[in-house]
Design brief:
The complex is a heterodimer of chains A (161) and B (500). Chain A is built from five helices and no strands. Chain A is mainly alpha-helical. The relative contact order of chain A is 0.09. With 500 residues, chain B is mainly α. Chain B has one domain. In chain B, 74% of the residues lie in helices and 1% in strands. Chain B is built from 20 helices and two strands. Classes of the chains: A mainly alpha (161), B mainly alpha (500). Chains A and B meet through helix 1, helix 2, helix 3, helix 4 and helix 5 of A and helix 8, helix 9, helix 17, helix 18 and helix 19 of B.
């Protein structure tokens, strides 16, 4: 965890330097007081100072002051990666397949991650997600969901065929 | 007298069928959210907020206030029955509540917690009314410099009192303020930190940040640490405390109520610190401190009253000054602004029906919560048995569609993905999420107040040290920055003394 904190401090410090540079290109002054670049620049200075302090702390303190490992068990890390991968896939598929289908796929991926391997449960939850999202958000709340390939089959507006 | 008349008007709004329904839904949802480990009121409000789009702001705020108060009640159930706090402010209840459950007194612990919460919640709303009206009169005299100083104090206090590392809290505050500057500058129209994404010209919506950090970030953390809830008992009997229980508990409830309210008013303190303080006070004042941690009912009554009372206190700065003091109230503020309302002293003058309707609904909500928590605990225990494999995907789906629904923007869903990862990493690195959400909400207001102040003074910074209230507030903000350093030096000295 000590190493992870060092990486965090360094990444945030570099981010602050980058934001500081970007902000320095924007006008910082105005006729009375501050221009648009004033706040981002000085906030990046503040972020840089605190990130440097975090980095210094992570380097100076002994390893015993930190938790042993960033991921105490590999299975936990794998579950997080699976959820994130499933979520990313759902976002990518949102436009071509539509939001209800992509979220149903996401549900089918995440249900086993959180403990159920029963394929009937997985299939039923995915189907319920598809129609639940469409009916609750699309029809009831009137959110113009991207419907993708379902646009003709399940219309957001007008009667349900 | 004026407040009473206004309150009556508020009740006439709060008892309309629609508002009663929203109050009931909010309190039920809040109790469930509070009871479920890992999901707090901040997550609950941000996830359910999209369901209120199209609803009038009063009903939406009644729902949010119901969730906020209900979560404080609900946190007790898991603390007592599983030894796992449903949310942070119920941590202290696990110490004695769980011990009581092991001794077969789970019902009494839950019953006393419900009665204490009801008394504290109701008194805190009375105190809110008493404090709010005069505070509004004072706040009406505030100009941009005072508001700037007040918001700065709010940000430094939440960072200084966040409980963990103050350095991390300040770092997160800077990060949140930076996020809030993204988008087109309101005055000059210059794009800032948009990284060539036209979708970022309108800035980052606070809901994307809140849902990512509190909602999906927490789901990811739960995915890593799969946990199974094991109940001590699921048959709850004897929820009515006896005479002896009342004799032991009435003083802790009274002290917890007032302590909780005062702590709730302070920015950044909130229910968790209130319950910690209450527990420590009761243990110190007890003639038998050795009973604490072994099933003392005072250890349940005091902290539970304190965390409920803090909700009324937290509404004071939100409604009167338009400045939130916690992550949850920051989300409420953001929501109100989305509904086109500007919280602050003028809210009492321009929208009295809204303010007093919400205050009146808090009285009604506390009665609903008492009835539910005395009569329906077995039902909530059953709901708690909903497996994670159904609940967690449901949270992701609700959060995603909810965030999309704000602006019908797929880009926001992409941003949500990023903030979910940020939220998860923040949890791993023990970085507090509340200061980040608070800074995202307050950031634009801080910048506007600073600009207006400098315009007033024709660009001179003198304006910040020539106005007494501004100076006072800025000194307090400065003290809050120094406070963690003082604590660090004191700890070091104590450790040095112990070692020698």
């Amino acid at each position: 965890m000590k190493r992870a904190e060092q990486v965090l401090g360094l990444v945030l410090l570099l981010f602050a330097v980058y934001i500081g540079y970007e902000s320095s290109l924007i006008e910082a002054g105005a006729e009375f007081g501050m221009g648009p670049g004033f706040m981002p620049f000085w906030l990046s200075v503040g972020l840089g100072i605190t990130a440097a302090a975090l980095l210094f702390r992570a380097v100076a303190l002994p390893a015993s002051r930190f938790a042993t490992a960033f991921y105490p068990e590999k299975a936990g890390a794998l579950r997080v990666i699976l959820v994130l991968a499933g979520y990313l896939l759902a976002i990518v598929l949102m436009k071509p397949l539509g939001m209800p289908i992509s979220l149903a796929i996401l549900t089918a991926i995440t249900v086993p991650v959180f403990g159920s391997r029963n394929w009937k449960t997985i299939a039923l939850t995915a189907v319920l997600t598809l129609f639940g999202v469409y009916l609750v958000f699309g029809r009831w709340l009137g959110v113009p969901l991207p419907m993708g390939i379902l646009e003709e089959v399940l219309p957001i507006y007008g009667p349900i065929y | 007298m004026e407040a009473l008349q206004q309150l009556m008007m508020g009740f006439s709004i709060a008892i309309t069928p629609v508002n009663l329904l929203y109050c009931l839904l909010g309190t039920i949802a809040g109790t469930i959210i509070g009871a479920l480990p890992g999901i707090g009121p901040s997550a609950g409000i941000s996830i359910l907020l999209p369901l209120t789009f199209g609803v009038n702001p009063t009903s939406a705020m009644i729902l949010m206030a119901g969730i906020y108060c209900g979560a404080m009640y609900g946190g007790t159930i898991t603390s007592v029955l599983i030894n796992l706090p449903g949310e942070a402010s119920s941590v202290m209840t696990t110490l004695d509540g769980y011990q009581m459950a092991l001794q077969g007194r789970a019902g009494t612990a839950l019953g006393m917690a419900a009665f204490g919460s009801f008394i504290a919640g109701t008194v805190s709303v009375i105190l809110l009314m008493l404090v709010a009206v005069p505070l509004v009169k004072v706040a009406l005299s505030f100009g941009p410099p005072e508001y700037f100083a007040l918001m700065l104090m709010g940000l430094t206090t939440i960072a200084g009192l966040s409980g963990g590392s103050a350095l991390k809290a300040f770092l997160v505050t800077f990060l949140g303020l930076l996020v809030s500057t993204a988008g087109m500058d309101a005055l000059s129209g210059h794009p800032r930190l948009t990284f060539d994404f036209p979708e970022l010209l309108d800035g980052v919506n606070f809901l994307v940040v809140a849902v990512g950090l509190f909602g999906i970030g927490e789901v990811l953390y739960t995915a890593e640490k799969t946990m199974k809830l094991e109940f001590v008992t699921t048959t709850i009997k004897g929820v009515w405390p006896n005479r002896e229980d009342w004799r032991l508990s009435w003083k802790p409830i009274t002290r917890g109520t007032f302590m909780g309210f005062i702590v709730g008013v302070l920015p950044g303190a909130g229910g968790t610190i209130a319950s910690f303080l209450s527990y420590a006070t009761e243990k110190k004042l007890s003639r038998h401190p050795e009973r604490f941690g072994k099933g003392a009912i005072e250890g349940v009554a005091g902290p539970e009253s304190a965390n409920n009372s803090s909700t009324g206190g937290a509404m004071v700065p939100l409604l009167t000054l338009g400045i939130p003091g916690s992550g949850t109230t920051a989300i409420m503020l953001g929501a109100l602004m989305m509904f086109g309302l500007q919280p602050g002293p003028l809210l009492f003058q321009k929208n009295p029906d809204f303010v007093w309707g919400v205050i009146a609904s808090m009285y009604i909500g506390n009665v609903m919560l008492l009835i539910m928590n005395i009569g329906c605990i077995p039902l909530f225990v059953k709901i708690l048995k909903i497996p994670n494999f159904l609940l967690m995907p449901l949270i992701i789906v609700f959060s995603t569609v909810g965030v999309y629904a704000v602006d019908n923007s797929p880009f926001d869903v992409g941003l949500l993905y990023i903030f979910s990862i940020v939220g998860y990493l923040m949890r791993k690195f023990d970085l507090p999420p509340a200061p980040l959400v608070l800074s995202v909400v307050l950031g634009p207001m801080v910048e506007r107040a600073l600009r207006q102040s400098l315009s007033m003074s024709l660009g001179s910074y003198d304006i910040f040290y020539t106005r007494p209230i501004t100076v006072g507030l800025l000194l307090l903000a400065f003290a809050m920055i120094l406070w963690p350093a003082v604590g660090w030096f004191r700890d070091r000295r104590r450790r040095g003394a112990d070692a020698s």
